């Protein structure tokens, strides 16, 4: 008796996509002009974000301003350190420059630690982790406020190295081994020279 293989039900075949629809999709995906306010537009354009827009009106923005890119100007300003006490004025100058360029600038600050003051005391126990606090606070404001760009102004000590932590950083890797003596097939690293000098 011949066995019959089960047949799978035939699936409906979709017809060709209309040319007009393809043109609309292509136009939406590729634009000649980049949308500079693509992040802030999430709160400045939808009518469902009327409450967010009301707050922005309250800080002085106009209808025209809501269509502009928003730039967060972050600094580690505080009065207790000579390296940082002038950063508020610098941030104000940067904000004004952003506005002259046709965008909206908003200043905000983060915490800071002066190594020069805390050196030799238990205050240095707070210095290293302040980098993460600074980076996290910048990321928090940038993400929550939907700013389109960031300009950061550090002062000195750990707050200088903390700003790149709030950005996307791709490490290039360690140095490759290099062949120095082809006849002996020796491979060394530059760091080996430091080790040799240290030993001799």
UniProtKB/TrEMBL annotation:
Residues 68-162 form the Dihydroxy-acid/6-phosphogluconate dehydratase N-terminal domain. The keyword Ribonucleoprotein does not apply. It comes from the Eukaryota. It holds the Pfam family ILVD_EDD_N. One of its GO terms (molecular function) is lyase activity. The keyword S-adenosyl-L-methionine does not apply. InterPro entries: DHAD_IlvD/Edd (IPR050165), ILV_EDD_N (IPR000581), IlvD/EDD_N (IPR037237). It comes from Zea mays. Keywords: Lyase. The lineage of its organism: Eukaryota, Viridiplantae, Streptophyta, Embryophyta, Tracheophyta. Belongs to the IlvD/Edd family. This is Dihydroxy-acid dehydratase chloroplastic.
């Amino acid at each position: 008796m011949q066995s019959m293989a089960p047949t799978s039900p035939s699936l409906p075949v979709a017809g060709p996509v209309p040319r007009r629809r393809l043109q609309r999709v292509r136009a939406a995906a590729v634009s000649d002009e980049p949308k500079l306010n693509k992040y802030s537009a999430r709160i400045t354009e939808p009518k469902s974000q009327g409450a967010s827009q009301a707050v922005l009106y309250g800080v002085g923005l106009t209808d025209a301003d809501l269509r502009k890119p928003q730039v967060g100007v972050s600094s580690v300003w505080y009065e207790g350190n000579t390296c940082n006490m002038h950063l508020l004025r610098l941030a104000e100058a940067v904000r004004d420059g952003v506005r002259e360029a046709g965008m909206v600038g908003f200043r905000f600050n983060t915490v800071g630690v002066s190594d020069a003051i805390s050196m030799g005391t238990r205050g240095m126990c707070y210095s290293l982790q302040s980098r993460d606090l600074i980076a996290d606070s910048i990321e928090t404001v940038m993400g929550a406020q939907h700013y389109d760009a960031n300009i950061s102004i550090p002062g000195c000590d750990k707050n200088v190295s903390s700003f790149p932590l709030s950005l996307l950083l791709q490490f290039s890797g360690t140095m490759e081994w290099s062949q120095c003596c082809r006849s002996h097939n020796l491979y060394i690293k530059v760091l080996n020279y430091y080790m040799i000098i240290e030993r001799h």
